[in-house]
Amino acid sequence: PPRSTLFPYTTLFRSAVYVRPETFAGPEMVSPEAGATPTRQAVILGAADGLTLVVGLLLGMRHHSGAVFAAALSAGLAELVGMSAALWLSNTRNVKNFVVAMSCGVMTALACVIPALPYLFWGGTVALSAALALLAALGAFICWMRPEKGTRAALETYGLLLAAGALCFAATLL
User: Fold this and answer.
1) Fewer CB atoms inside 10 Å of the end CB: C or N, the chain?
2) Is the separation of the CB atoms in 133 and 141 below 8 Å?
3) Torsion on CA atoms 85, 90, 108, 166, rounded to nearest 10
């Protein structure tokens, strides 16, 4: 076809950047304006994973305040290894992918442990309230890191955390 008829298509395909499969877990299209680098994606993935895990711990162990921090720390360390290893082993092993994998693992561990810190100092409602405030702050960090900004990012992020909380709470009723 004539060059002029290809213009809309070539413009369309130039509007995104292709990320090579060995850069992150699979080929995908990433908007250059979004700044969604593989490391940024790994941090978002890790933070969301850690937060949903700690939501389950907070709700599941709400009657065992003394054990919450130890459980969150153990889960965070296991997730540090698990998430890092999963990303590292699923990609070409090089320094860049190691940094991406470790970013995910470290963020998972931090997101799991930070909301449980109040249980080192308090118990009951005070610790739970402080933990929920930290959880909300980490949720705001995820919203800030996401390529989507504003209301959409907040509704999706906090909606997923609420869904995780509802499922975990329902499980405690069994």
Assistant:
1) C
2) no
3) -120
* Element housing 118 (H / E): none
Exposed (0-12), middle (13-18) or buried (19+): which is 169, by Cβ within 10 Å?
middle
pLDDT tens digits along 120-146 = 999 999 999 999 999 999 999 999 999
| Sign of the CA dihedral with 115 first, then 121, 124, and 125 last | negative
Which among 131, 137, 76, 136 has a CA at the least distance from the CA of 107? Answer: 76
Element (DSSP H or E) covering residue 174: none
Tens digits of residue pLDDT in 157-172: 999 999 999 999 999 8
End-to-end CA distance of the chain: 64
Note the pLDDT tens digit of each residue in 66-77: 999 999 999 999
Cα separation of 25 and 1, whole Å? Answer: 36
Position 90: which residue type?
Answer: S
Q: Which amino acid is at 127?
A: A
Report how far residue 49's alpha carbon sits from residue 69's, in angstroms, rounded to the nearest whole number: 17
Whether residue 88 contacts residue 101, with contact meaning beta carbons closer than 8 Å, is answered with yes
